[in-house]
Amino acid sequence: MDAGIQERLDVYIQKKGLRRTGQREEIVEEVFSKDEHFTAEELYDRIRKTTSGISRATVYRTLALLVEADLLREIDLGDNQTTYDPNFLDKPAHNHLVCIDCGKVIEFEDSHIELLNDCVTRRLGFRAVRETLKIEATCEQLRLKGSCPNLLERRLSGRRLRKKR
Amino acid sequence: MDAGIQERLDVYIQKKGLRRTGQREEIVEEVFSKDEHFTAEELYDRIRKTTSGISRATVYRTLALLVEADLLREIDLGDNQTTYDPNFLDKPAHNHLVCIDCGKVIEFEDSHIELLNDCVTRRLGFRAVRETLKIEATCEQLRLKGSCPNLLERRLSGRRLRKKR
DNA sequence: GTTATTGCAAATGATTTGCACAAGG
DNA sequence: CCTTGTGCAAATCATTTGCAATAAC
Predict the structure, then answer these.
(1) Per-residue pLDDT, A163
(2) Whether the predicted pLDDT of A164 surpasses 60
(3) Any CB–CB contact under 8 A between B130 and chain A?
(4) Across A97-120, average pLDDT
(5) Which of A49, B88, B117, B126 has minimal CB crowding within 10 Å?
(6) Hey, are the CB atoms on B136 and A137 less than 8 Å from each other?
(7) What ranges do the domains of chain A cover?
(8) pLDDT value, residue A21
(9) Which residue places its CA closest to the C1' of nucleotide C14?
(10) Is the CB of residue B141 less than 8 Å away from at least one CB of chain A?
(11) Which of A94, A88, A132 is closest to B76 using CA atoms?
(12) Which of A59-63, A73-77, A156-160 has the lowest mean pLDDT?
């Protein structure tokens, strides 16, 4: 994990008159330990495996804080729960491609896309603050050989499967 | 409303062995009577003002049916409820710009955006099925004179205000 | 010492679902 | 008739919140 993240959160915390706590440090540690997307519940589970154990409420509240501090981004994968993406610090303008066949999410950057979007936005009389592009697509490679094993259930439900608590 | 929509739903209904009902006709009528975005609850309220009255469950189920039949699209405006957009039949590839100042949603089409997205998608080895671009932006016109009246509350909550039932 | 933070459990709000009755085909 | 659709109320599920106990600063 980028060692600078705790510090960047500190700056925000100072500015707002908030407090640095063990729970916040630990959550930041866990959030940025991988480049994987996750939901609040998934993160809560990951943290529960730890000796310490942090309450669900604190997990939710800290995620909101990180989003507010612009260290973490919420993305919408269409499954009725907020997914968090820790990779915007490294790639501030990346986009998401979701494979309809297997549900895999691929991140990609393309400067032309941002340029064009900004240009169109300006033409409309606005200044773009945040752009969210999600492309849902089928895999060409698999198109001929059939498709991913989890295709069926996903196609049926139309969305990512939910988990029980 | 485009008179062809009931017929297009009929085709889908036939194909799936489903049934044409008064409730479905009425909901389709209401959904496509304006080009406004709406939530399930908002639509339910609109319909409740009608003499007939249709149950909330039926409204939700019929919206899901319309989405399945590809006559209606779900969009995410970031307020934790599904918003429905009835305008994709007329403008199959439009995008949304959300004004951070006042929350207004502006629809726009730009063929270059779709071309570029498709191109990038192909380069990644996929075939785009659906593209969703949301641009959050500030209004340049208002930037100097101040901002919209509802700016403050929206900025504070960070999302569109919710309504109670 | 204040004031922010945490944990817990209860509350909320959108959406879904089980079931008995109604109604298409 | 035989299924699918509807309405109702209860259930779900992610997320939020009130409040008393704790912990930063």
Answers:
(1) 40
(2) no
(3) yes
(4) 92
(5) A49
(6) no
(7) 1-89, 91-165
(8) 96
(9) B81
(10) yes
(11) A132
(12) A156-160
Contact flag A125-B139 (C-beta cutoff 8 Å): yes
The DSSP secondary structure of B57-99, one letter per residue, reads: HHHHHHHHHHHHTTSSEEE--SSSS-EEEGGGTTSTT-EEEEE
CA atoms of B144 and A119, how far apart (whole Å): 21
The CATH topology of domain A1-89 is Arc Repressor Mutant, subunit A (1.10.10)
Q: Which residue has the tokens 């799936």?
A: B16
- pLDDT surpasses 60 at A54: yes
The percent of chain B in helix, strand and coil, each rounded to the nearest 5, is 45, 20, 35
Q: How far is the CA of B11 from the C1' of D8 (A)?
A: 30
Distance B137 CA to C5 C1' (A): 33
Q: How far is B81 from A143, CA to CA, in rounded Å?
A: 34
The fold of A91-165 is Dna Ligase; domain 1 (3.30.1490)
Checking DSSP bridges between strand A73-75 and strand B38-39, what pairing results, if any? unpaired
Give me the residues of chain B with pLDDT under 70, please.
1-3, 145-165
